[in-house]
Amino acid sequence: MTTSARTGRSVANAAAGVLVVVVLAWVARYLSKWVPDATGGTALAGIGASVEFPIYAIALGLLGNAVLTATGVRERLSGGFRTEFFIKTGLVLLGASINLGVIVSAAGPAVVQSVVLISLVFGFSWWLGGRLGLDDKLRALLSAAVAICGVSAAIAAAGAVQAKREQLAYSASLVIAFALPSIFVLPVAATALGLDARVTGAWLGGNIDTTAAVTAAGALAGEESLQIATIVKVTQNALLGVVAVALTAYFALKVERRPVGVSAGRQLWQRFPKFVLGFLVTSIAATAYLAWVPSGKAAIGVVNDLRTWFLILAFVSIGLEFRVGALKQAGWRPVGVFAASTGVNVVAALGLAVLLF
């Protein structure tokens, strides 16, 4: 076979792989909208409304992985499973939902809570992961996910430390597994504890790991709680870039022990996830746009919808690329670290919410 023929076949296979990802992503998006409607008014309404698109996307990706592997075509199509591209594009677009003006004007206590909480929970998770002998890259992903904003933070950390895709998929699965029950348990617990609306919102926003789950829990707790929870979670999301920079520097200089100097600076720049800069630029642009065009929320909504599509494509690709071998080697320890860190997060977030709000 000639070189041009091989190139043509490779391109055709990659295109077929992209088509598989797009079809599965469409099904995942359809299910994320259809299931809540189909279960509305039934005993399953709460579950149907709370299951997020990452669950459908990863599940369909894993199913596609199994089918393509069984039919022997998975490797040929793998060139179209562009996880990294989809993830980075989605996170750049995520910046449009971070209105810096809201944080500056209305979230003074939220900034204090976020900084203290992220430092405490990340530090505990990192320490415990080290005590249990976890791989440094995996514990970086777990620590970022539980301390900041769930899957998005795990993705950013994965880019900073150059983690394996299996580690990212594992971290994302843990985030989802812990976030779903918290949607229902924490609002009930807040009522049982007699917390007022502002404290409830700060508690929910401070320790539930995904923005969608925070929104769902806040909606159950009430309008004022939802507003405070959203501000707290958005504030945590805004600190994502700071953590990514810190992880990049730590892994380059301490874990891999790159020499300090010009070469070290070059290494930092090469390893630094450039999409974080795009995330910040998008956030600044969206903030300025809303300041100049108060009626521009519809345009931001379009960007957010596009972000959702790219993240769905990314999660489908993660499922398609998933390899179970690395997870079997990880064992129970990552689950223990994540569970213990979640417990610390719940208690610390409650204390800070009562103190600051």
Keywords:
mainly alpha, 357 residues, 19 helices
Computed structural class = mainly alpha
How much of the sequence is in beta strands? under 5%
Total domain units: 1
Residues in helix, %: over 70%
Instruction: Write down the Rg.
Output: 21 Å
Tell me the series of helices and strands, N- to C-terminal.
Answer: HHHHHHHHHHHHHHHHHHH
Task: Pick out the low-confidence regions.
Answer: none
Give a summary of the structure in a few sentences.
Helices cover 84% and strands 0% of the residues. The protein has 357 residues and is mostly helical.
Task: Describe what this molecule looks like in 3D.
With 357 residues, the protein is mostly helical. It has one domain. It contains 19 helices and no strands. The longest helix has 37 residues.
